[in-house]
Amino acid sequence: MHQAIGAVVIGPTFSRDIASGAGADLQVILDGRRSNAAQIVGGYLNQIAQGVAQDAVAASGARATPQVSIAARNWFNPSLTYRWFLVPNLIAVIALLIGLLVTALSVARERELGTFDQLMVSPLRVHEVLLGKFCRRS
Fold first, then answer.
1. Are strands 68-75 and 24-31 parallel, antiparallel or unpaired?
2. What is the pTM of this model?
3. Most buried of 22, 25, 40, 52, CB within 10 angstroms?
């Protein structure tokens, strides 16, 4: 499944405005949940729109390059509040670190008790032993 980061809304008079040398309007709708990627896509779309305007001027022989004004709108996070994407990431990182810490402590306890060698001679692979320790509830 592909997800769009940005969409472009081109008005009905866009090409006519560019050809006449007047400024044209373009709306860019960006996914605010991935603000960094959305800002990069917005910058690329801005460069593409300016390039289209310059190409249209070169084809028509006009002297002045019309300006394309871009109105960017961020959906799902209109004010680009960092908490909406930072807090869930912090929760996931903390949960992962706690899981790794519990796994490491469990392996250390097994070594101290001398039962870790029994695990290593079992038909389980190393990642299966660690996954079992990770999922084990003590």
1. parallel
2. 0.54
3. 52
**Pairwise CA distance, residues 27 & 98, whole Å:** 44
The first and second tokens of residue 80, run together, are 């680009």
**By C-alpha distance, which of 97, 99, 95 is closest to 131?**
99
AA letter at 36: N
Q: Is 77 strand, coil or helix?
A: coil
All residues at 6 or more sequence positions from 31 whose CB lies less than 8 Å from its CB, including other chains: 3, 4, 5, 6, 37, 38, 74, 75, 76
Output the six-digit token pair for 99: 């899981």
Residue-wise pLDDT tens for the chain (138 aa)?
458 888 889 888 887 887 777 778 889 998 887 878 888 998 998 898 888 878 877 777 766 667 778 888 888 777 777 776 788 888 999 998 998 888 888 888 888 888 888 878 889 888 888 888 777 654
- Whether the Cβ atoms of residue 58 and residue 19 lie closer than 8 Å to each other: no
Quick one: tokens of 40?
A: 């990069």
